[in-house]
Specification:
Helix content: 40-55%
Order of helices and strands: HHHHHEEEHHEHEEEHH
Shape: globular
Number of strands: 7
Radius of gyration: 25 Å
Number of domains: 2
Largest sheet: 5 strands, mixed
Structural class: alpha/beta
Number of helices: 10
Strand order of the largest sheet: 3-2-1-4-5
CATH topology of the largest domain: Nucleotidyltransferase, domain 5
Length: about 300
């Protein structure tokens, strides 16, 4: 690449919009060898410390700075010419990379206390997090004192929590902190995951969630006042049974099993569908009746 083309790239980078600039930086970082990433980090740290440019620089100083920039550009030309070309990503998930994904699920208990709105409070009882390969990252039980949460025939059937079974768990604050450290900077694949994070005391909008229930929805049979169809999310159990023929929630639910099931649905069902439509958009446009044949179980 010659010096002129490098200058064009620099000019474009300075003048383009934020998203386009960040996409270019992501591609460049993907091309950077691992041992050079520390140098890149040093450049970033120095840039953060740098003060605002002096608007009153003399012509002589501005000329000197200009010569320095030209020298850097020339050096970049030589470096870029020697760099191996890496094909650009073909989808938003390839851009994120396998290491950038985790899947999370929580099983909850309903406490015997109400919030300021008069509703009973739900808190996490077990937390399961898996990576792209569906290997376990976190599998924790949260401490709850016996008698502090509701237990009846229905809850026993769903989560199996009763008596002192949760008294062997870790404090919620510790599990929350560990969960936060794992999902920070990751794309968190979930099925209705906002409520899971809230049950841990985390704010969903602080994290990058990809909820498969925003994709897999079916017509509720109702219409809006404007005449549009009202869609409702399809639960994880029904989705997994429809696509894989296995009932993962026939007995006591497992947060770890559900996290793995969510990741599998994302990888094996959502990704091919998105690839055929618009692989660079995280929004999924549902075709009329696309998932209406999925039966609820």
């Amino acid at each position: 690449m010659d010096e002129f083309n490098i200058q064009e790239v620099v000019n474009w980078t300075c003048s383009t919009d934020r998203d386009s600039r960040l996409n270019l930086l992501k591609i460049l970082i993907r091309c950077t060898p691992h041992d050079e990433l520390k140098i890149v980090q040093r450049f970033v740290d120095n840039a953060k410390k740098r003060k605002s440019p002096n608007k009153h620089l003399s012509k002589k100083k501005r000329h000197a700075v200009g010569k320095e920039v030209v020298g850097v550009v020339a050096q970049m030309s030589t470096t870029v010419a020697q760099m191996p070309t890496t094909p650009p990503p073909t989808s938003w998930w390839e851009e994120v990379g396998m290491d950038g994904f985790v899947s999370l699920d929580c099983e909850m208990v309903t406490l015997n206390q109400k919030n300021s709105h008069g509703k009973f409070i739900q808190k996490a009882a077990t937390v399961g997090i898996v990576d792209w390969k569906k290997d376990t990252i976190l599998n924790e039980t949260v401490y709850h004192k016996a008698g502090s949460y509701k237990v009846n025939s229905y809850t026993k059937k769903i989560n199996g929590f009763e008596g002192s079974v949760l008294e062997k768990g870790r404090e919620l604050s510790a599990v929350k902190e560990q969960t936060e450290s794992i999902i920070e900077g990751k794309v968190v694949v979930t099925a209705g995951g906002a409520s899971d994070l809230l049950s841990l005391g985390l704010v969903p909008s602080d994290y990058e969630l990809f909820d498969i229930q925003t994709v897999f929805r079916k017509w509720s049979g109702q219409f809006t006042k404007a005449g549009d169809k009202v869609y409702q999310p399809i639960n994880l159990r029904s989705l997994y049974f429809h696509y894989f023929g296995e009932d993962i929630q026939s007995g006591i639910h497992s947060s770890l099993t559900d996290a793995r099931a969510t990741m599998r649905l994302f990888q094996e069902i959502y990704l091919p569908l998105a690839l055929a439509k618009n692989p660079f958009s995280r929004s999924y446009e549902i075709e009329d009746g696309e998932f209406d044949n999925i039966k609820k179980i």
